[in-house]
Design goal:
The protein is of the alpha+beta class and 68 residues long. The chain has a domain of 33 residues. It is built from three helices and two strands. It has a two-stranded antiparallel ribbon. A hairpin with a 2-residue loop joins strand 1 and strand 2. It is extended, with a radius of gyration of 15 Å.
Length: 68
Amino acid sequence: MLAIDGLADLHFGAAMDGFHQVARYRFVDGHRIDNITDCALEQFRENYEFALRIAGRLINKDAIFHYV
């Protein structure tokens, strides 16, 4: 797994099977659109509620992106 904070070379992982690049946002007509839906956020919060209480933290979309 590789995480970067810039543009990635699309051929970097071409030799590896199952290589995928997923951006945090996509852009349509100059507008930034979140790739993590509100529905996904609610599902994470519902399914990991026990961990939230233990850690005293809130799951947000950035946390989901870094987890996945």
